[in-house]
Design brief:
Elements: E1 3-10, H1 16-27, E2 30-36, E3 39-45, H2 49-61, E4 68-76, E5 85-87, H3 107-113, H4 157-164, E6 185-187, H5 195-204, E7 209-212, E8 217-222, H6 226-236, E9 244-246, H7 250-254, H8 261-268, E10 274-278, E11 295-299, H9 304-310, E12 317-321, H10 333-339, E13 346-350, E14 362-366, E15 369-374, E16 384-385, E17 396-398, E18 408-411, E19 414-417, H11 427-443, E20 450-454, H12 460-472, E21 476-479, H13 481-492, E22 502-512, E23 518-526, E24 531-536, E25 540-541, H14 553-562, H15 566-572, H16 577-583, H17 587-596, E26 602-603, H18 606-616, H19 629-639
Parallel strand pairs: 2-5, 7-13, 9-11, 10-14, 17-20, 20-21
Antiparallel strand pairs: 1-3, 1-4, 2-3, 6-13, 7-8, 8-12, 9-12, 10-11, 14-15, 16-19, 17-18, 18-19, 22-23, 23-24, 25-26
This protein binds zinc ion (2 copies).
Residues 106, 108-109, 127-128, 130-131 line the site of one zinc ion.
């Protein structure tokens, strides 16, 4: 009989068809395989059901590392004449959509760059269908070389031969390259010398290196050199936020931090995120790496350039995003020369353009499972699968909030989240947001029938959603911030679309509430469609409005004053630093503002409650440098506490 196998999932641009070809050859089956708009279609001629079972079993066990099968549907098909097994050109009618995330260098490519006999020995842009850049280099679909930043590098004869040979690991590897035909490295301003050796020398001398990576620039220095780390902090004007670290291998990481099997798996995964790990006491890293924190954010090298740069490093390197304090990471050479030039002693550049900024992802493990804190490189734009009951929902574009923005395209069961973009108040990031929304719509051939925005009328994402809904003539829905938080957790846990209301708890900084006030510590009775606010933290004034978010003492003051504790505590405990500090403030003025409700909006924010408690404990009471800093210091303090004794 003849059968058709329809395969859906992450099966395009990951070496899937060659694997199918291999499996068919091994089992001696005839037929063909092609990509189309739905995924991959395989036809097998003159086979038994047992052959099909064997075929699927072997296909699943030989799956290329970046492929993921969502489903395989088998049905009988009309007969055709097959001679052997062949890979067909893609069906012209349906566009190839989607793209897989950027992936860390695979073991085979790693072996090649360290093998003196290989033609890619020491070549920093080595990749294959199992690894390398994807989202970061794509401009348009279909995903082929011409629509990526590799279009300016015509393949040499040898690379082209690899690219067209189904038996080769580089069959249809769009960024395929070698020293003869591909991108190259240089040190800005240095005409001669080996760029990698110059960069290494800079690091060994305690210098700061700016280097171009996969999804953006990094600033690097020797993490064990306190002067270098301090200098980097000063120049970057980033005084508080922990620096990420990169180490050559797990042995090096093990000297500085502890990790369990889950964390190890994350570190070694193709996504290669930054994993937050408990630091080893007295391991000898300067405290400036992660002030206030007992955790270190480690990642392993994920590009050949990193592997070559770190080859002889027994210590970790700081590998922090290449930017100045709150700006987004640089992606362009000229921009990096201008913005990072003054921060770095040496710039290591290359000529493969980064088309889309994709920051390093950040993960921590909690209760034995990975929890994504920043979902970007290595994860986006792989879709999250939601429950089957979502399959008939019309395509929805949800634009997210303005802080730590990501947006989401819901298409059938696939919720495709963009990479973390950042804060839309920042002009660069706001432009990137517009660009990335347009890019994703094209990559996934996505035509929204509905647009969802946060109900905060002042949000940039809100205004842009309104404009887009008008332009596309589709309805716009405003969603309450914390209802969105709870609904996304419901979706993540695979609840069906008609799930009865449940109790959701959202502990947050600030979000625009359903009654027009600022919410943030909410207990909602919610389903996917609606919610009722059943309880919340007591609303407290935010004296000074926005300033209350950066000056934690204001939140302490508000709580003490509202509860009429200030005078009493001041008399009993005048020496407590937080009390003494509050006493020094212009309390009459604050009192008047509070009494008249001037610039003191009430808010049930959980974040501001944490800030108040942190301030009371003398943690960053005066001013914070970054969002959540006081709360994080409080968390670190709590983690060190005794959790076994009841209060
Ligand atoms: Zn590879
Ligand atoms: Zn080549």
């Amino acid at each position: 009989m003849t059968f058709e196998l329809r395969i859906r999932g992450l099966v395009q641009g990951v070496g899937f068809r060659p694997t199918v070809w291999h499996v068919a050859h091994t089992l001696g089956l005839s037929g063909d395989v092609r990509n189309d708009g739905e995924g991959v279609l395989i036809r097998l001629s003159d086979v038994t059901e047992e052959d099909i079972d064997n075929f699927i079993r072997k296909l699943r066990s030989d799956l290329p590392p970046l492929a993921e099968i969502e489903e395989i549907v088998v049905h009988p098909a009309s007969e055709f004449e097959a001679r052997g097994f062949s890979i067909l050109a893609s069906a012209a009618t349906a566009p190839l959509t989607g793209i897989v995330p950027d992936a860390a260098t695979c073991p085979d490519c790693r072996a090649e760059i360290h093998n003196p006999k290989d033609r890619r020995h020491h070549y920093p842009f080595t990749n294959c269908t199992h690894c390398g850049p994807r989202l970061s280099i794509i401009r348009a679909i279909p995903y082929d070389r011409a629509s990526t930043s590799m279009s300016v590098f015509p393949m040499c004869e040898q690379c082209a031969a690899e690219y067209t040979d189904p038996a080769n690991r580089r069959y249809h590897a769009q960024p395929n390259a070698c020293p003869e035909c591909g991108p190259h490295l240089w040190i800005e301003g240095a005409a001669e010398g080996d760029p990698l050796s110059i960069a290494q020398a800079c690091l060994h001398e305690g210098g700061i290196l700016a280097l171009k990576g996969i999804g953006g620039f990094h600033l690097a220095c020797d993490a064990t050199n306190p002067q270098a780390v301090q200098r980097l902090r000063r120049r970057k004007r980033r005084y508080a936020k922990p620096f990420a670290l990169m180490a050559r291998d797990l042995d090096v990481i093990g000297g500085y931090a502890r990790f369990d099997a889950t964390a190890e798996q994350l570190l070694r995964s193709p996504a290669a995120p930054i994993v937050l790990l408990p630091a080893r006491e007295g391991a000898g890293l300067p405290s400036e790496i992660a002030p206030d924190s007992h955790e270190l954010g480690f990642m392993l090298p994920y590009s050949p350039l990193h592997h070559l740069l770190l080859a002889d490093w027994e210590q970790p390197l700081v590998m922090t995003s290449g930017n100045l304090s709150d700006e987004p990471q640089c992606v362009e050479n000229q921009d990096a020369i201008e913005r990072l030039g003054p921060l770095a002693d040496c710039l290591l550049l290359h000529d493969r353009d980064i088309v889309n900024r994709v920051d390093d992802s950040v993960v921590r493990t909690m209760a034995g499972a990975p929890r994504l804190i920043r979902r970007a490189r290595g994860y986006a734009p792989a879709p999250l699968r939601v429950d089957a009951s979502f399959v008939d929902t019309p395509p929805i574009l949800a634009l997210g909030g303005d802080l730590k923005n990501t947006f989401c395209q819901l298409q059938g069961r696939n919720a495709t989240l963009s990479q973390h973009l950042g804060d839309l108040h920042e002009a660069h990031t706001s432009d990137e947001f517009v660009h990335t929304v347009a890019l994703y719509r094209e990559l996934f051939d996505f035509h929204p029938c509905h647009i969802a925005v946060d109900c905060h009328p002042g949000y940039r994402s809100h205004r842009m959603g309104k404009e887009l809904a008008q332009a596309l003539d589709v309805p716009l829905t405003e969603v309450q911030h914390h209802h969105a938080h709870i609904a996304s957790v419901m979706a993540e846990h695979g609840l069906p679309i008609d799930h009865p209301p449940l109790i959701g708890i959202a502990l947050d900084g600030l979000g625009f509430g359903g009654d027009g006030t600022l919410w943030g510590g909410e207990i909602l009775l919610a389903n996917f469609q609606d919610y009722r606010r059943i309880a919340h933290l007591e609303a407290m004034p935010l004296p000074g409005g926005d300033r209350a978010a950066v000056e934690p003492w204001r939140n302490l003051y508000a709580r003490l004053a509202e509860n009429e504790l200030l005078q009493d505590l001041s008399q009993k405990y005048p020496d407590i630093p937080a009390i003494a500090f509050v006493q020094e403030q212009p309390l009459d003025l604050l009192q008047q503002m509070r009494a008249r409700g001037i610039n003191s909006p009430p808010s049930s924010s959980a974040g501001r409650l944490f800030d108040a408690v942190a301030a009371a404990l003398d943690l960053h009471k005066e001013k914070i440098q970054q969002e959540g800093q006081a709360a994080m210091a409080l968390e670190q303090l709590a983690l060190r506490g005794d959790h076994t004794t009841p209060p």
